[in-house]
Write a structure and sequence with these properties.
globular
Length: 151
Amino acid sequence: MALPYENATSGDKAIGEIQKMLRAFGCQRFATGEDWETGELFVQFEHRGRMVQLKASAKGYGAAWLKAHPYSSRMRGTRADHEAKALKIGGIAVYSILRDWVKGQVTAIEIGMLTFEAAFLSHILLPSGLSVIEHVQQQKLLPSPQEASDA
């Protein structure tokens, strides 16, 4: 079964579309980057003084792709080749996923369905450099999934 976005081809194009969309939305700053060690891609932007950072894992997508398309000895190439292909596909797919997610959030804000804070709260950067969700997780402010299901 096909994994959504596995045939995406527009990594750089998706970044350009995100930038154009956020500029039209009124954002003042925009940056993208990659952490090759963790396999994370990120998009940062500033809107009315609030810095937002969105992260997506190419390695995570690659792992999902490998589950959907497991290696077999009947395939051309080695297992390492197959895993490299998964990471490459993930590196392109996550930019398209981010583009579509940002588009959905910005549209929800523009039609009054969500406020900016409601749409991007967990991704807003605090003065410490952590995102709101990273701070919440670090401080253990949410109950664990087990505690939540016991309540």
